[in-house]
Design goal:
By secondary structure, this protein is an alpha+beta fold. It contains 8 helices and 13 strands. The structure holds fe (ii) ion. Fe (ii) ion binds next to loops. Fe (ii) ion (FE2) binds next to loops.
Length: 274
């Protein structure tokens, strides 16, 4: 049962056991297989959110309908060498697993995620973006406070984030933190393409609130649904345990999708199966 009233009140909803443990294990195994097969020397692209301007190279900007790996900043030494095995050096894999990966696509398009999206009131959800976020032990980077509508803007705003714990997430290994009721906050910035690069448009110069966030510790298999305007973040992982998670972002088909959003595809985004 999807508690839409709680989601509308808080801007998020924690759903323990939404995805079977066995499916999570399969998704994690597949994630490591993609990571192990990645040629880090050929594509040394780092993903970090701690700088005001996000890394936005061609490898990133062309990943909207591909499956590509991005490295942790701390996995590269001063000489540009990757210092760790792939599976502990990669920050994330994105952004089209939900369409093209034989293991991820059926889970993403399947009944469990569909029930959450429809249960929260979406009418014609389109699967727009998917990411594996490894948050590796010791070097997993923090994700600074943000609103997902900044990065996946539609008119009107419609993005819904579905975050799945592939491993147990705790305060120690960098779980999500969310601001209850914070989805009432106006969208502060919009991230978009500009020329060959990217830019932020500031719509509201006030910084996002810094206080009041609550940790959303989650066992593997838990889905956290996040309203697109809800401020959320996650800490760095300095622990000895990785904190792998998967995120799926869906938008309403009827909402206008701008041609200068960073994520662009050659074909329309798929819907849920069935
Ligand atoms: Fe987010």
């Amino acid at each position: 049962m999807i508690d839409r009233a709680a989601f509308d009140r808080d801007g998020f909803l924690v759903l323990p056991g939404a995805i079977d443990q066995e499916i999570c294990a399969r998704l994690l195994t597949r994630a490591y297989a993609i990571a192990d097969g990645f040629d880090v020397a050929a594509h040394r692209s780092v993903f970090t959110t701690t700088e005001q301007t996000r890394t936005a190279d061609d490898w990133f900007l062309g990943s909207g309908d591909q499956v590509r790996c991005f490295l942790e900043a701390e996995a590269i030494d001063g000489d540009g060498r990757v210092t760790r095995p792939n599976r502990s050096a990669i920050n994330k894999i994105g952004h089209n697993l939900h369409e093209v990966d034989a293991v991820y696509a059926p889970v993403c398009q399947g009944a469990a995620f569909a029930a959450i999206a429809f249960g929260l009131g979406m009418t014609a959800p389109r699967l727009l973006q998917s990411m594996i976020i490894f948050k590796p032990a010791e070097i997993g980077g923090e994700v600074t406070a943000h609103q997902d509508s900044t990065f996946l803007y539609t008119d009107p705003p419609s993005v819904l984030g579905l975050w799945l714990a592939l491993e147990d997430a705790t305060v120690e290994n960098g779980c999500l933190w969310a601001l209850p009721g914070g989805h009432a906050e106006p969208i502060r910035q919009r991230f978009r393409r500009e020329g060959a690069g990217v830019a932020f448009d500031t719509w509201d110069p006030r910084p996002l609130p810094e206080a009041g966030y609550v940790p959303l510790e989650a066992k593997a298999g838990t889905v956290v649904a996040l309203h697109g305007q809800l401020p959320h973040r996650s800490g760095a992982n300095r622990s000895q345990r990785s904190r792998a998670a998967f995120t799926l972002h869906v938008v309403e088909a009827s909402a206008h999708y701008p041609a200068d959003n960073w994520l662009q595809r050659a074909t329309p985004a798929p819907g849920f199966a069935g």
